[in-house]
Task: structure prediction
Amino acid sequence: MLWTLAIGWSMVAQSAAFAQVVFDVNSVVPARSAEAIGIMARMPQSRFVEVRLETSALFEPAWANSIQELTVRAVSRHHDVQVADYSPRTEMQTDVFGPMQVALDAERFREGGLQGVGGYPGVGSASGFAYQMESGQQTVHFAQKPALEVVTASGTLQRQQGVYFKQRQSTQTTLEGSRTFRIVFEVPESWRADLLDVTMEAVGLEHPKSRSSKILSSQRFVVAVYQEGDEVAARAAVNYRKHHSQLLLAVDSKAWEIQHRTFPTPFHKLGAKLDIYEPELPSGWLETIVYQPGVPLPMHRLSILPVDVRVAIMNYLDQKVGVESLSGSRDVERWFRQERVATHGEYARR
Result:
C-alpha cells in the first residue's frame, strides 16, 4: 500500500512550493530472507534480507517536459546494516538499433613520367618523354558501435549503509509512473525490524529558457521494514505508521497555536530573523523527532507545545523506539525510558 508521508505543517508548506512533482513510496515493507542468492561471503552472525521499494512519481502537466532526472536514496539508520546488493544497476542505452555502417571513401591517384635523350655524333640528337596517369576511388565499409548514454545510475552511499538510484529521461523511457527498486541488506542475526530513510528528488529546468538544472522537488519518507513472517515485528511496523500519521495530524490541527506560542508577537518574529530572539521551541523540531534515531530531543524542550501534540509525540516515540529496538538498538530504548520517566515527573510537579 502506498502512503504519502508529508512531514508536518512546516514541511507541508515546502511541499506545496514544489507541487510540480509528487512522490510516494510504500510505508511498510516486508523483508524476505535471501540466504541462497550467493552474493558475497556474509560476515559472522549476520544474514541477508531483501527489500523492495515501490515508488511512484506524478508530474504536473506543465512540468512534464522540464524534468530531466529522478533520484531515490535509501539509507539505513544503523552502521551494522550494510547494502550487499541492489538493482537496477547502472544501465546505458542508445537510440540507434544495431551497429552503425560507416563508409570511408578514398581517391587513389598515381602518375609517372619517363624522359630519354639519344643521338649519333655529327648527325644530331633526339629526346622523348613518356607519361602515364592512373586514378580511381576506393570505398571501405566497417561497423561501429553507437554512442551510449546513461539512463540509470546506481551505487552505494555512506560506506554501504545506503544506496542510490538515479534515472534520466530518454527517448525510450519515461520518468513518470511507478518503479520498483530491490535492495539486499546484510543484517545481524537478531535483526527483526528497522526504519529506512528514503529521499526522492526531481532535477530539471525551472523554465524553458534555463541553461542550468536545479532540484525542482524533494521529499523525505520513513519506511518501516520488518522480517517477513514475524508477526510481532509486522505489528510494530504497522503501529509506527499509524502513530506517525496521528502525529502529523495533531501538528497540522494545532499549526496556528504552535506558531503563536513560538512567536507571540510580530516583534518576536523580527527578533528571530535578526538573531536577537531565540524561540523556546527548537528550530526543525519535528524533522529532528522523525528523522533522527532514538529520542533526539529532551521532552522538556517541547513543553511549549499544546498538550495534544505532546501526547502524540510520546505515543509516536514509543512506536519509533519499539521498531528501532528490534534492530538491536537497546541503548535507544533505555534512553527513551529514562527520558519518559523524567518528563512525566516534571509534568506531575506542574
Notes: The helical segments are 8-17, 231-253, 255-262, 266-273, 285-291, 307-325, 330-349. DSSP finds seven helices and 13 strands in the chain. Residues 1-18, 346-350 have pLDDT under 50 and may be disordered.
